[in-house]
From TrEMBL, chain A:
Source lineage: Bacteria, Pseudomonadati, Bacteroidota, Chitinophagia, Chitinophagales
The protein's name: NADH-quinone oxidoreductase subunit J
Principal cellular location given in the protein's record: membrane
Known role: NDH-1 shuttles electrons from NADH, via FMN and iron-sulfur (Fe-S) centers, to quinones in the respiratory chain. Couples the redox reaction to proton translocation (for every two electrons transferred, four hydrogen ions are translocated across the cytoplasmic membrane), and thus conserves the redox energy in a proton gradient.
Pfam families, alphabetized: Oxidored_q3
Family: Belongs to the complex I subunit 6 family.
Membrane-spanning parts: 6-26, 33-51, 57-80, 92-112, 141-162
Compartments where found: Cell membrane
Organism: Chitinophaga dinghuensis
EC number of this enzyme: 7.1.1.-
InterPro entries in UniProt: NADH_UbQ/plastoQ_OxRdtase_su6, Nuo/plastoQ_OxRdtase_6_NuoJ
GO terms for cellular component: plasma membrane
TrEMBL record, chain B:
Name by which UniProt lists this protein: NADH-quinone oxidoreductase subunit H
Function: NDH-1 shuttles electrons from NADH, via FMN and iron-sulfur (Fe-S) centers, to quinones in the respiratory chain. The immediate electron acceptor for the enzyme in this species is believed to be ubiquinone. Couples the redox reaction to proton translocation (for every two electrons transferred, four hydrogen ions are translocated across the cytoplasmic membrane), and thus conserves the redox energy in a proton gradient. This subunit may bind ubiquinone.
Cell compartments where the protein resides: Cell membrane; Membrane
Pfam family of the protein (one): NADHdh
PANTHER family: NADH DEHYDROGENASE SUBUNIT 1, NADH-UBIQUINONE OXIDOREDUCTASE CHAIN 1
GO biological process, one term: aerobic respiration
EC number: 7.1.1.-
PROSITE patterns: COMPLEX1_ND1_2 (PS00668)
Amino acid sequence: MGMSIQQIIFMVLSFVALVSALGVVLSKNPVTSVLCLIVTFFAIAGHYIMLNAQFLAVVHIIVYAGAIMVLFLYVMMLMNLNSDIEPHKRNWLKYAGAISGGALLVVLVAALRDASVPALSETATEIGLIHNLGKLLFTQYVVPFEISSILFLSAMVGAVVIGKKD
Amino acid sequence: MTLLSIDWFYLVEKILLISGVLVLSLVVAMYSTWGERKVAAWIQDRLGPNRAGPMGLLQPLADGGKLFFKEEIIPTHSNRFLFILGPSIAMMVACMTSAVIPWGDTITVAGRTVSLQVADVNIGILFIFGVVSMGVYGIMIGGWASNNKYSLLASIRAASQIISYELPMGLALIALLMLTGTLSLKEIVEQQRHGVWNVCLQPLGFLIFLICAFAECNRTPFDLPEAENELNGGYHLEYSSMKLGFFLFAEYINMFISSALIATLYFGGYSFPWMDSLGWGENAIALLGFFIFFLKILFFIFVFMWVRWTIPRFRYDQLMRLGWRILIPLALANMLITGALVLLRQH
């Protein structure tokens, strides 16, 4: 046996993540795109669990798959998008999109080419567990944590103000 | 016995446990349909099902058989894949929560200590949240893929209802977490075993959680997604045969799991008074604990039915007002008071 069970699971998860991520981009139907994105999120949550970061995995599911994607699906279903009402894209727009996407890819490859990926040490994997993460968030990183909560508060106030408009 | 660095006995033990829990959920859900009719009949002074078998006990089998043999209709112009995916997700999500519920204490079989819980993860409550937030997909996808305006309306109602009531439910649970200091359901039960039931410490939290559980299960008085007189039947309007059965069945499984959760979080789970002073063997106590837990669950299933046949359905604006204007402020106040008291006790 060349591969351990962890490697097999990693391969399967990565395969699912890549295929469903491609599905998001390539699918013609927007609802299928959204569903593919949800599958991608699940595969990534699986990766978090492999890294022993259960808390991160489950919060990832709750926030992204459970809340944000429901909203996406909601909007997609109500807009009832299909190919008949899709605006016709001009050719030069497609070329511009391909070129800027390619440029982004070049930048990413250039940035990541020399980046080293340090192997995970056994003790470092404990950080994803909820006790350690909570301690760290509320001691060392308490100021950024509180500031981000103000960000949420302002977003909430904004939503209420928009909702109140008659 | 280890091979491939996997403990195979452990695997077999877990597979047996998972199958057991699954079968239990399905059987309880099946007989909940019978129980629902019997309770309805009792409340309305009727007899209820009494033709198939003694006391109508074979009625669920007859219903299931009928659903299996009905013609399967998939509407034209509907997305076939998503149409089938909808009820499948509903059923799968309904069965998933049972993984973190502790069904009993540990038992010892042939020198091996077996925990009667599929997964004692240290994020048990968050896992439940994750699964609950998935529950909306089955209804939304099913309702949209039917290509029917009534189904779409019903699924939008269901989605907004479930999202709205997730918030007070979470806030009620946060207050409980402050008291227990753990996310593991097993530990929450163990704390109640050696102390008092959480319902005594969190009466308001329990009430909020109960109301939200009704809303999450789409049960009366929150069954607006299947309001037959406004929506011709709801999100499963276009479904027939066993796909309809899956949607209906998922509701009963949800009810069973919600009752198990309420019993676990607020009513001591598998623990019961004088559990540790009976002086029986460990296995006997664990089995008795499971039995008591089951009785608690049955009681809450009865409460679900009792409410359904007593209270009429809310109007949609009433539903939203209850969720956003009453339950969330109440849950926030409950959380603040609990936090203050916990802080006071620590100093």
